[in-house]
Amino acid sequence: MSSHLHPMLNTAIKAARAAGAIINRAALDVEAVRVAQKQINDYVTEVDQASEAAIIETLLTAYPGHGILAEESGRQHGAKNSEFVWIIDPLDGTTNFIHGFPYYCVSIALSVRGKVEHGVVYDPTRNDLFTATRGRGAFMNDRRVRVSKRTRLSECLLGTGFPYRPGDDFAGYLKMMADVMQHTHGLRRPGAAALDLAYVAAGFTDGFFETGLSIWDVAAGGLLVTEAGGLVGNFTGEANYLEQRECLAAPPRIYGQMVGLIGKYSKFAGVADKMTVQAAGSAEGRAD
């Protein structure tokens, strides 16, 4: 832990590293990990649960009066009415982990009176630690990071996530992806949104967009992006995105171009934009 960091951020780092150690040990024999299905294509492992328990124990030992919002256990731990709430994803990228695909992370954020103040995203496979405190910048392994300097969307490499649950709008997402792919340098789908956002903050990718995300997927990563000089919002560009299940992140000039491109696919888009998307789909249907 670092003496120059906020004590609460240091505690989050300690918790993330404890969880990462559990994940790395399990990764040595991933075939032995017990897996349960929450719903179709949505899994939880004993590693998710052990990782979450280690994080909660570390946080509540240091701050017993704080609240907890965790992916696997919800709000059953911690104080119920605290202004301080830890938002935890103990293993973002569980499907990757199950298959031995080394792209997953631990995500921990602290919300104070509804605003995210501290964030940690830890990649245990590479020992990469991304941290941010509101107003103090974003860091990767103690080195200050900034979003990319690219200004043209056509030169940008973007990250995304594909829909995979029953009821998701697969057809709509394919239209949006086709639109994006024609206007960018490339599109990647690594499979862990919190780490995808950290990569935008570090400038490894130039933007990110995905639907269907929960608050624990985006709370820490979103703070990393804004502290690295980027913008985060929903597809129409509105900043109140944490619980809207739409997330778009990019450097400011790329952000505006992405909103212009995919804003019409947002569930918050105006009637005219939605009709444009529907008309395009009808024209494609007639062409077929």
UniProtKB/TrEMBL annotation:
It catalyses: a myo-inositol phosphate + H2O = myo-inositol + phosphate. Its cofactor is Mg(2+). Keywords: Hydrolase, Magnesium, Metal-binding. InterPro entries: IMPase, Inositol_monoP_metal-BS, Inositol_monophosphatase-like, Inositol_monophosphatase_CS, Inositol_monophosphatase_SuhB. Pfam families: Inositol_P. It comes from the Bacteria. PROSITE patterns: IMP_1 (PS00629), IMP_2 (PS00630). This is Inositol-1-monophosphatase. It comes from Comamonas flocculans.
